[in-house]
Specification:
binds 1,3-dihydroxyacetonephosphate; two-stranded antiparallel ribbon; 15% strand; single chain; alpha/beta
């Protein structure tokens, strides 16, 4: 399948992407919240509950997996997850970055690890059925940050990652995440997100990345979570769209937002409002927490709650499917 075809399928009308690629330490934090031990089996059971939700393929076009899950099997059919998802018409994706490391001795800013052996790792995933990949960079906002150096380094690495993935046949999800922790205003968030996106696309252009064969996964433009004046849904939608229109080429087929710690409901309402206007790209979701939180709390790690967990998950998937069409 061509890169363009996969990318268009990822953002097909009424569908979005499930980010289920939490690393083991992140999964442990999630499971701690329901008093469940995090081990290979409990993580397999959790993903199995989500991936087997009935008719999930009507709302979810693709799922981003973590390396461990990529190698695990669906518990009832015994198929490896990439094969199981493909058989359900859901595209299997893979997180290929190796997490974050500090850039400086003061431990203020971070860069993403994993470029050294990326070609070999992505070739392996491609040979086992992966159709797309994800690489996440993060940017912290303070009075002085992010620095130009941090934006430049992470943008160049995102472009190198995209180049390697496209050369192999995987559609890269390019994820520059401006974090919303802090007390900054929505204007500050707008300025930083604009600067980051601008440099990311400059770096992608300089490596001749095929924009039609990639997906952008940005943050929405929000006030910092500790800011005393929180923005309205209208303000978030307006500034996010303005920021994207100024910086993202219309040849990119789709923008799939991360939820970034917003509540499930707000993440859905912001997406819906943005889809009430006509935009040059498909605007959809690639949420982790905003698709999974109520499902995790309903499941609680118990097999007798699998159906409750799946119902909660499908509720969010359906709501976001509607929001991706402005139909909520
Ligand atoms: P959240 O939606 O929970 O922010 O996760 C999305 C993601 O993939 C982060 O890399």
């Amino acid at each position: 399948m061509s890169l363009e075809k996969i990318a268009n399928q990822m953002v097909e009308s009424g569908k979005g992407i499930l980010a289920a690629d939490e690393s083991n330490p992140t999964c442990k934090k999630k499971f701690d919240s329901i008093n469940l031990e995090s081990n290979a089996l409990s993580r397999n059971q959790y993903r199995d509950m989500l991936f087997n939700a009935p008719e999930l393929e009507n709302y979810i076009s693709g799922i981003i997996l973590f390396d461990e899950t990529f190698r695990q099997k669906d518990l009832s059919s015994n198929q490896l997850y990439p094969d199981f998802l493909s058989s359900k018409n859901i595209l299997p994706g893979i997180k290929v970055d190796l997490g974050l490391t500090y850039m400086d001795s003061a431990k203020l800013e971070q860069q993403t690890r994993g470029l050294e052996d990326l070609y070999d790792r992505t070739s392996f995933y491609f040979s086992k059925g992966a159709k797309f990949s994800k690489w996440r960079s993060v940017f912290h906002i303070t009075n002085d940050l992010p620095s130009d150096q941090c934006i430049k380094k992470n943008s160049e690495d995102l472009a190198e990652y995209a180049l390697i993935c496209q050369s192999i046949g995987l559609v890269p999800i390019v994820e520059p995440e401006v974090l919303m922790d802090g007390n900054h205003s929505i204007q500050k968030s707008y300025e930083v997100t604009s600067k980051v996106l601008n440099l990311v696309f400059e770096s992608l252009s300089s490596k001749s990345i095929n924009f039609e064969g990639m997906i952008l996964k940005p943050n929405m433009v929000l006030s910092g979570y500790q800011c005393s004046s929180q923005s309205s849904i209208e303000q978030v939608a307006e500034l996010t769209l303005q920021c994207l229109k100024n910086n993202v080429p219309s040849s990119v087929p789709g923008i799939a937002f991360l939820s970034g710690g917003q509540s499930e409901d707000l993440a859905t309402r912001h997406l819906n409002l943005m889809n009430l206007s006509t935009n040059p790209w498909k605007l959809t979701f690639s949420y982790g927490r905003a698709l999974q939180t109520s499902a995790l709390n309903a499941w609680k790690g118990e097999s007798r709650n699998i159906i409750l967990g799946q119902k909660a998950f499908l509720n969010r998937a359906k709501a976001n499917s509607l929001a991706s069409q402005g139909l909520l």
